[in-house]
């Protein structure tokens, strides 16, 4: 685990943007019981954490996507992060709606985007990768050259990794599930022996044997 991942994991845990509760699982909309809850919108209300995250995303983008020309945020969670990182990097920024507007020009992509421009998608959270790949598809339809995704946190779920690979899309995250589990155990938020069963959840969320 890198120092950057460790720092961001601590930040996310400290403000409750990521919350681990293996003994009292959360229930997802799908009905799956989960030991983890993630709401990275909370990072926007914690200025010190927000600054580290936005500067971290800017550094990540400079490192892995040095030829980027435009940042595109996912709607709605990625918009603010794309705007702040755009300011820090001096890059143009726009965002992609979940669907076309039903009025005006009917745009789905907001902000200027020229065919062939090299784009990085800014996302707050990746689980199964469906929503961010929908954004990628819309941008590709607009003839953008997608360099990849820059995200705050990824679960690293098998389904998400497979979808990204099938679509030929790279993702670079500031923090991931393993880092959060390890830091949470080190800080006494979960027991060290919880890590193995939390990883079983991550590898197959529909299998509830991790709760045993």
- What is the helix fraction of residues, given as a range? 40-55%
| Helix segment tally | 7
Order of helices and strands: HEEEEHEHEEEHEHEHH
Instruction: Kindly report the average pLDDT value.
Output: 94
**Biggest sheet statistics:** 6 strands, mixed
Low-pLDDT residue spans: none
Globular, elongated, flat, extended or rod-shaped: what is the shape?
globular
The radius of gyration over CA amounts to 17 Å
Strand fraction equals: 15-25%
Please count the beta strands (DSSP E, at least 2 residues each). 10
Strand order of the largest sheet: 7-6-5-8-9-10
Structural class: alpha/beta
First-last Cα distance: 28 Å
Overview of the structural elements:
The chain is an alpha/beta fold. The strands form three sheets. The chain has a six-stranded mixed sheet. A two-stranded antiparallel sheet has the order 1-4. A two-stranded antiparallel ribbon has the order 2-3. The protein is globular and about 50 Å long. It has helices at 3-14, 47-64, 77-89, 130-141, 158-167, 177-186, 194-203, and strands at 18-20, 26-27, 33-34, 36-38, 70-74, 93-96, 109-110, 118-126, 145-154, 171-176. Helix 2 (47-64) crosses helix 3 (77-89). It contains seven helices and ten strands. Helices cover 40% and strands 22% of the residues.
């Amino acid at each position: 685990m890198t120092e950057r991942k460790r720092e961001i994991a601590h930040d996310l845990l400290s403000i409750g943007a990521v919350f681990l509760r293996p003994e009292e699982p959360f229930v997802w909309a799908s009905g799956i019981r989960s030991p983890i809850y993630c709401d990275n919108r909370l990072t926007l209300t914690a200025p010190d954490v927000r600054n580290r995250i936005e500067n971290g995303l800017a550094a990540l983008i400079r490192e892995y996507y040095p030829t980027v020309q435009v940042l595109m945020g996912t709607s709605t969670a990625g918009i603010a992060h794309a705007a702040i990182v755009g300011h820090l990097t001096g890059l143009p920024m726009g965002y992609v709606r979940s669907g076309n507007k039903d009025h005006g020009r009917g745009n789905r992509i907001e902000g200027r985007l020229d065919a062939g421009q090299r784009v990085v998608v800014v996302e707050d959270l990746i689980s199964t990768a469906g929503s961010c790949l929908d954004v990628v598809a819309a941008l590709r339809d607009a003839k953008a050259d997608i360099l990849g995704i820059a995200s705050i946190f990824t679960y690293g779920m098998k389904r998400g990794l497979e979808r990204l690979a099938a679509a030929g899309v790279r993702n670079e995250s500031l923090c991931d599930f393993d880092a959060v589990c390890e830091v949470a155990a080190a800080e006494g938020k979960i027991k060290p022996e919880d890590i193995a069963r939390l990883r079983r959840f991550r590898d197959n969320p529909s299998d509830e044997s991790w709760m045993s």
